[in-house]
Amino acid sequence: MVVIGVGYLGITHAACMAELGHEVLGVDVDEAKIEQLREGTVPLYEPGLSRMLRRHLAEGRLRFTTSYADAAEFGDVHFLCVGTPQRDGSDSADLSFVEAAVHALAAELTGPALVVGKCTVPVGTAARLARTVRRSAPGADLAWNPEFLREGRAVDDTLKPDRLVFGAESRAALDLLHAVYSLPIAAGTPVISTNFATAELVKAAANAFLATKVSFINAMAEICEATGADVVELARALGYDGRIGHRYLRPGLGFGGGCLPKDIRAFRARAQELGAHRTLEFLREVDAINLRRRHRLVRLAAEQCGGLGGRRVAVLGASFKPESDDVRDSPALYVAAAVQGEGAQVTVYDPKAIANARRHSPGLRYAGSARAAAAGADLVLHLTEWKEFQEIDPAELSPVVGMRAIVDGRNALDPLRWRAAGWTYRALGRP
Ligand code: UGA
Question: Which of the residues 16, 81, 119, 259 is marked catalytic?
Answer without folding.
Answer: 259
